[in-house]
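Bug #2210: token dump truncated for TauD/TfdA family dioxygenase?
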Amino acid sequence: MDAVIEQAEAAGLSLREGFPLTVQATDRQRGLEQAFSVIRDQVDRRLERDGAILFSGFADPGVEGFQAFAAAFGHPLLSYEFGSTPRSQVTGGGVYTSTEYPAHHSIPLHNEQAYTTEWPMRIWFYCARAADEGGETPIADSRRVYRRIDPALRRRFEEKGLRYVRNYGNGLDVDWQQVFNSDDPAAVEAYCRRHRIDWVWKDDGTLRTSQRCQAVARHPRTGDRVWFNQAHLFHVSALDPEMQEVLLETVGEADLPRNVYYGDGTPLESSALDVIRGVLDESRIVFPWQTGDVLMLDNMLTAHARQPFRGPRKVVVAMAEGVSLESLEQTAIPEAAHD
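Reproduced locally. Full output below:
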């Protein structure tokens, strides 16, 4: 480890242990690209051990520099397909705004696209402008979350799996055209067939989909089991009681914008999700953003969230190294010894 520290110091960097691991530039004029060989070595050594690395104190890379930094790790940046929240593309090369929810809303902890069977392994956040107040991106160790959930509850979720049901548009949720990046129903149906998603076009021209997904997943390289789903976000109990009542009275359960059941279609208990939300809340780590910071996560090992904020804030996202549940099952490795 001393040699690693010496290598970092020789490159004008310091390492601060913790979650996230922080790689700090000792000279604000130093750019990420100038230290990339050492940064790449730290990522190779530490990302799958620590789950999260914060790069701070470097010269502000700007959006284009951030895009180049994320792409330099060797995997093409991914487009945001089958999204569940509104986002806008910032560049033509795979950089998007973070979820465009109102500033006074918090976004609970989640792993990116864990509500489907394909997701990115790596995700980067770039703070182009830190908010005047709040706006942090809390993180949590998904291995720790898995271990802290009651084993009987964990086993029930893992054995049954989850089924996510979505109704798009009608002013209640993202339109299907935006979710599938197409206004061609045939293209949507082809996507659904490829990804084993059930679909139905309703009489008013809107779309409903249903997909059976994992509740727990195993990391393909470390063997760690992780809590990997978004049941606590999709379930109707995630809405405040007044909104639940309004939606259930006006559209009914079948047409809720989103909901989740056990994989066999049976109801998912709100009480179970309350327990899971409690574990997630207890697992949160919050650190302040500085303009120019870049946070890199292993998306399976680390969940992320967003705090409410005041004042202008701009955080953008890039994703890479897409994997699928099917590919993980085909290349399963033994579980990590500590699980």
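Output looks complete on our side. The chain has a mean pLDDT of 91. Marking as cannot-reproduce; reopen if the truncation happens again.
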